[in-house]
Amino acid sequence: MSNRKSKKRLxxxxxxxxxxxxxxxGCTSESVENDNANASSESSKMITFAWPRDIGEMNPHIYxxxxxxxxxxxxxxxVSYQDGGELKPHLxxxxxxxxxxxxxxFKLRQDVKFSDGTSFNADIVKKNFDAILKNADMHGWLGFIxxxxxxxxxxxxxxxxxxxxxxxxxxxxxxxxxxxxxLGESGxxxxxxxxxxxxxxxxxxxxxxxEYKVDEFAVFKRNxxxxxxxxxxxKIKVKVIPDAETRILAFEKGDLDxxxxxxxxxxxxxxxxxxxxxxxxxxxxPVATRQLVMNTxxxxxxxxxxxxxxxxxxxxxxxxxxxxxxxxxxxxxxLPTNLPYTSNVDxxxxxxxxxxxxQLLDEAGWKLPKGKNVREKDGKPLEIELMxxxxxxxxxxxxxxxxxxxxxxxxxxxxxxxxxTTQVERFKANEFDMNFYSNFGAPYDPHTFVNMMxxxxxxxxxxxxxxPNQEELMNQIVEVQQTTDENERQQLYTVILGSLQxxxxxxxxxxxxxxxxxxxxxxxxxxxxxxxxxxxxxxTVK
Length: 542
Description:
Elements: H1 4-13, H2 32-43, E1 46-51, H3 68-74, E2 79-81, E3 87-89, E4 92-97, E5 103-108, H4 122-134, E6 148-155, E7 158-163, H5 170-173, E8 207-213, E9 217-222, E10 235-240, H6 244-253, E11 258-261, H7 267-275, E12 280-283, E13 288-294, H8 304-312, H9 316-324, E14 329-330, H10 354-363, E15 376-377, E16 380-381, E17 383-389, H11 393-407, E18 412-418, H12 420-428, E19 434-438, H13 447-452, H14 460-463, H15 470-482, H16 486-502, E20 506-512, E21 515-518, E22 522-523, E23 540-541
Parallel strand pairs: 1-10, 17-18, 17-19
Antiparallel strand pairs: 2-3, 4-5, 5-7, 6-7, 8-9, 9-10, 11-21, 12-21, 13-19, 13-20, 14-20, 15-16, 22-23
């Protein structure tokens, strides 16, 4: 398919890590005394943090190497995603949706200018949409993009978007960090094709790229003409530090004041630093669910009783506590319940029960021959491969735990560590028995997660291929995208998510959380509701 490369990029997004430390800015002075005074003054105006890779070209309409956190500092959406899944006006001060769910009329803010002083208006909104649609195949993973029929400038501050068919997640998808954020006129190349690059990163956001040296650092200065509330700090410096241990040494030395994100440091290191009592720490609400995905196309996993037995057959609470030191929490549902439409899912909470697991395997015809350690059926052993990302310690440790626990059931689990790109490709190509996965989180879910079940090229169509209600489930997923009735939509999600979990091919393991650890001079730190946004909105330095 033409959008497969785009889908691969989307899958890679689920493992992108964020790191936000801070260091002091040094100044020149005629005396040591003035040096220290100036350094202290400057440190209250600037945050420096480490990032494992270069920020990229800061193009709002493309993916890697542009980094999500940095893109969100410069470029803004029409609509923002807030706590509890609430969608609030941003560059659009209001919007109306037609009764048939096809037409979206946006009233734009009239007090917004780009960082080069030019006006934000309907013409530039349309120009950005046209640039995105010129490369629609690249962005086909975002559900509403292929459904766009027309974009129109109604007047200077009114923009109209018309879809070919109703698609309720449109407003939610307008809140994502890329690609529907807005570049100023001077940033466009002459031919208007931003897929080949931009002239300069000109946005409406609270930050402007001020200095940049590839693979070394980037400095963002505050946009003093920002239309919204100005940040407390004046500059953000990003230092490229690929090695996690080097980042932590810098943090302990006092050069960095904030470490933030998912997987940015080992859990042991986080706990050790927390235990010293010398630093402040924060842990977010769940941002995603760590899942074990089973391919029901495989003979050993085609029977729901086998899948359920494997779920009953490991001590999830003990594994999560042991592997994550309590940082993550045991997941009872396949999506976190703080996402929209997920709080009322009716699905069985599976508790550890070895005898129940053995009973289900017996009922499925997998018997343990006398004198053997592995169950058999029709002369074939119950042997399964679990694929994991070799660079992720948590996946590896969880795989080893499952291997040990399931051996007690008479199941031989072969664990295979592969590089992330291989893991993604094998999953998409249906070349797996079991795989670790996590959903994208806010603002993508639940609609993106369930859409993957019916979309070729993600690997999930194979996962649900043996479901007895597969056709009904796929119809419900299409229906929930198009319904304009809020109550009906909630009911459909309750049924869809419950059915996906009850069939046992997607096993929730734990809820993933972001962490932050920072020096005492950092205050007002909050986790953004949007998983990909930067966290600098209200942060201050004492």
